[in-house]
Amino acid sequence: MILVSAGDAIGAKLVQEGGFDGIWISGFEATARLGLADNGSITLTEMLNIARPIVDNVDIPVYVDVDTGYSNFKRTIKEFEAIGVAGICVEDVEPEYKRNSLWGDKVPLMDIDKFKRKLDINRKIAIIARTESLVRGYGELECLQRLHEYRDAGADYLFPHSRTKPICLDLFPAKSKIVIAPTKFPEYTNQKLKELGYDMIIHANQTERVKIKAVRDMLKELKKNDRMLEAEQHLCATLDDMKGLTPCE
């Protein structure tokens, strides 16, 4: 399964149009769009408001990054079930130390048994249990122990987040579904990652980064030419294209 990030209905429709398997709603992207730091500052309500129109406008499954699960994980699950998401991803950092996983040093991880109790809950949607063991410098043995425990606690997918390379799956829990986000090693093809044994591949923030570059380029053209003609000709989708991605009147 290949997921690509989207932060709004048009983005989600484009991912579906592109033939991908599902939508990823990134906590990093969501907080950035609100002008917030990726440190747990976004709320459950704000993420629900982002996810709802996406779910309503596509036919492919939607998965949501809920950081550490917000203040009440049972309610988080209930609310996302109600709007029809396919699954949520929760990480094992202690909430007060939540930081973006692509940067930074060691921070405290949640006690294994405490995190397992969080996973052991009645639900209809899938849970991706993400361990920050590797990105926070705790090593592969700690990562493996946590993933075995999280699988036993009922996690549907296991996510050993890495920012260096895909890790060998030979020692991972048997018959587990393993997740990867190859943000820091984009040279790996989706096919290669599948061959290595990964079941879910998440391209987690590229659509937002494309927007940043595209808008910058358009603004440079506007500033240089003092008109929109050149940007319209070379950088902008047509009005009809945008209209086609919105509902008929």
Describe the structure.
The protein has 249 residues and is α/β, with parallel strands linked by helices. The chain has 2 domains: 2-204, Alpha-Beta Barrel (TIM Barrel), CATH 3.20.20.60; 206-249, no CATH class. The protein is built from 10 helices and 8 strands. It has an 8-stranded parallel β-barrel with strand order 1-2-3-4-5-6-7-8, surrounded by 6 helices. Strand 5 (126-131), helix 6 and strand 6 (157-160) form a beta-alpha-beta unit. The chain is globular, with a radius of gyration of 19 Å. The two termini are 34 Å apart.
H/E topology pattern = EHEHHEHEHEHEEHEHHH
Biggest sheet, spatial arrangement of strands = 1-2-3-4-5-6-7-8
Give the C-level CATH assignment of the largest domain. Alpha Beta
Mean of residue pLDDT?
A: 95
Strand content: 5-15%
Computed Rg: 19 Å
List the helices and strands and how they pair.
Blueprint: E1 2-5, H1 9-17, E2 22-25, H2 27-33, H3 44-57, E3 62-65, H4 73-83, E4 87-91, H5 112-119, E5 126-131, H6 140-152, E6 157-160, E7 177-180, H7 190-195, E8 200-203, H8 206-225, H9 229-234, H10 239-244
Briefly say what this structure is.
This protein is an alpha/beta fold.
Search tags:
TIM Barrel, 249 residues, alpha/beta, 8-stranded parallel beta barrel, globular, single chain
